[in-house]
Design goal:
CATH architecture: Orthogonal Bundle
Largest sheet: none
Number of helices: 4
Order of helices and strands: HHHH
Number of domains: 1
CATH superfamily: Cytochrome c-like domain
CATH class: Mainly Alpha
Number of strands: 0
Distance between the termini: 42 Å
Oligomer: single chain
Helix content: 55-70%
């Protein structure tokens, strides 16, 4: 029984470490993709704060896919008069990473 508890504890630590690595990779991708030029985690810059975006999409069934589409194609009128430019060069994997990460940002 003790060996099972030790294994579970170690596995949980590995999963937590992997999640932290994924989070760090998503933040680095956001920085490298220029997201932080117009957005911040908690404050409105040119575009809305990532936390505000997460709040707006909270509970939506296809939130990550909808957000990924807005990142790729740009958007207009969702957050005011300033449009978000498209980012067509981002891969599908990067779009998924970014949209999933944005949805986790707390205001």
């Amino acid at each position: 029984m003790r060996s099972i508890l030790i294994f579970c504890s170690l596995f949980a630590g590995v999963v937590q470490h992997a999640a932290a690595n994924d989070l760090a990779a998503a933040v680095e991708l956001a920085k490298a993709s220029g997201c932080y030029s117009c957005h911040a985690n908690a404050d409105k810059v040119v575009g809305p704060a990532f936390g505000a975006i997460a709040e707006k999409y909270a509970g939506e069934k296809d939130a990550a896919a909808s957000l990924a589409q807005s990142i790729q194609n740009g958007s207009k009128g969702k957050w005011g008069r300033i449009p978000m430019p498209p980012h067509p060069s981002l891969s599908a994997a990067d779009l998924k990473t970014l949209s999933s990460w944005v949805l986790t940002v707390k205001p």
